[in-house]
Inverse folding.
């Protein structure tokens, strides 16, 4: 073999060795990829082992328990011996099937709704006593009128009449206490009557002194209706004191000063009074009237009358009055006025009885009976009827007439120009919504929705005194329940999914193992070929070396 041919051969072998190594690396990488495929197949199988499903258990008429995949349709479609559930969204609406939604939409009331499911309402021929639905509103209106009527009840204290005369106890007290002083004054001793007026104007006494009493705060400065100042002296040594009647006169003084039976005591009215603005001072002081700041002629209080008379008795001569012709008649007139001063106020039985009788006739009546007799209805399928009655009330509310909306009130407070303004907005929403049949029949969707909290469950429980009582059926109410607490809903291993995953895992494992064996055989062939090529490579390399030596020897010779 020539040198050139040997070199060409060596290059060819080197190329085949490189190709052999590349193919070996490729096959080794493929074997590593098989390991990853094995891991993935194992992971899928493990996931299947952990996979679960929700099942729903029911009983047939023979009492046999059956398990079915949990779907919205299984939960909400009527079935005998089933608990009734509702699927509730985050807005609090019950999700119903397309069929239930269509039946509700096309029904004006509960009976029409039940008819859609083949349920007929039948008159049982019996009645029952129930609360009148109109009673509550009627009672509220009546109660307002009744409370007002009670508040308007006539009171005996509001019906009184006044009686004047000399038989009142206070007037008798005055007469008994003043008798001796009055007689003395009529007999010519005017100062005696000053004692009477002193006790009447402002009597303040305490125990002690010569006659058993001390007079406190005298003299007292007073002003007449004509603007004159008069000093009221104490009545020490008067007949009233000596007879021990001073405490009695205290009651008379208090009545004149502070009022009698809650009313200010005035001088007696005198239709024959001749007082004018041009009357003399004496006439003004003796009159029961005076002119106020507005120029009006008004009646004096009895206290003012006593002050004016005190001034007259003390100054009658200076006023140009004659004792017997002017002063004595004035005292006599005053004594007569006193008989009319202390007016008795007594119950007016006749006026009260008339008012009470008129009030009694106005008593409001409640004409709406609290209970009524209601026909008891039966249904041709009571259990099925109860199911759809419950559904109606969850979709519609308590009424048997259609009213499927809820009114929501939102109150917001905003600040406008430094003032807080409250706004009330009302919106309405339905109590229900449609769940499409595809999702209603999907076990996977319901499982995800329950676990993620997208929906919750409500279950019908039976209790007393609930909104459904007027149906004549059992009383029922919808109550929230956690799905994991429902005894007829369970979570189980998905055996079907596990079986499929196991078959896929075994098939995949066999394919990977066969491929791996094939790759091993290919690597063995490559190793054999590599060894042969390496041997041939060394042989050619040796031939080339020898050829080079011979050539060098020839040229060196």
């Amino acid at each position: 073999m020539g040198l050139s041919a040997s070199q060409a051969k060596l290059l060819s072998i080197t190329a085949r060795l490189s190709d052999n190594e590349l193919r070996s690396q490729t096959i080794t990488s493929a074997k590593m990829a098989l390991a990853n495929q094995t891991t993935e197949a194992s992971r899928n199988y493990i996931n299947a082992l952990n996979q679960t499903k929700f099942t729903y258990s029911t009983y047939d008429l023979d009492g046999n328990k059956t398990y079915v995949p949990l779907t919205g349709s299984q939960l909400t479609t009527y079935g005998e011996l089933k608990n009734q559930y509702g699927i509730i969204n985050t807005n609090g609406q019950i999700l119903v099937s397309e069929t239930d939604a269509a039946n509700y939409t096309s029904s004006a009331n509960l009976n029409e709704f039940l008819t859609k499911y083949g349920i007929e309402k039948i008159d049982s021929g019996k009645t029952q006593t129930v609360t009148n639905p109109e009673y509550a509103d009627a009672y509220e209106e009546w109660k307002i009128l009744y409370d007002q009527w009670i508040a308007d009840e006539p009171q005996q204290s509001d019906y009184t009449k006044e009686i004047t005369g000399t038989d009142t106890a206070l007037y008798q007290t005055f007469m008994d206490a003043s008798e001796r002083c009055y007689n003395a004054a009529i007999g010519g001793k005017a100062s005696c009557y000053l004692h009477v007026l002193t006790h009447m104007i402002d009597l303040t006494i305490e125990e002690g002194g010569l006659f058993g009493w001390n007079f406190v705060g005298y003299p007292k400065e007073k002003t007449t209706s004509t603007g004159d100042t008069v000093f009221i002296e104490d009545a020490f040594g008067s007949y009233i004191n000596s007879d021990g009647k001073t405490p009695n006169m205290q009651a008379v003084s208090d009545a004149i000063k502070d009022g009698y039976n809650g009313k200010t005591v005035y001088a007696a009215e005198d239709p024959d009074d001749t007082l004018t603005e041009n009357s003399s001072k004496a006439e003004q002081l003796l009159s029961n009237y005076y002119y106020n700041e507005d120029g009006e002629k008004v009646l004096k209080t009895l206290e003012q009358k006593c002050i004016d008379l005190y001034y007259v008795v003390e100054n009658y001569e200076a006023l140009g009055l004659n004792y017997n012709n002017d002063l004595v008649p004035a005292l006599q007139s005053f004594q007569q006025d006193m008989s009319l001063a202390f007016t008795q106020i007594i119950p007016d039985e006749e006026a009260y009885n008339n008012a009470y009788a008129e009030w009694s006739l106005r008593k409001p009546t409640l004409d709406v009976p609290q209970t009524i007799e209601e026909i008891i209805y039966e249904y041709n399928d009571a259990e099925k009827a109860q199911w759809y009655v419950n559904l109606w009330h969850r979709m519609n509310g308590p009424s048997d007439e259609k009213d499927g909306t809820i009114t929501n009130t939102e109150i917001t407070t905003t600040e406008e120009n430094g003032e807080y303004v409250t706004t009330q907005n009302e919106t309405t929403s339905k109590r229900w919504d449609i769940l499409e049949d595809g999702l209603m029949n999907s076990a996977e969707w319901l499982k995800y929705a329950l676990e993620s909290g997208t929906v919750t469950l409500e279950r019908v429980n039976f209790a007393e005194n609930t909104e459904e009582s007027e149906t004549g059926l059992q009383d029922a109410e919808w109550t929230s329940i956690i799905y994991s607490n429902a005894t007829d809903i369970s979570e189980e291993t998905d055996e079907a999914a596990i079986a499929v995953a196991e078959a896929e895992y075994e098939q995949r494992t066999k394919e990977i193992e066969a491929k791996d064996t094939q790759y091993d055989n290919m690597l063995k062939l490559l190793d054999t070929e590599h060894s042969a090529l390496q041997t041939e490579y060394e042989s050619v390399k040796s031939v080339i070396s020898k050829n080079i030596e011979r050539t060098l020897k020839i040229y060196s010779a």
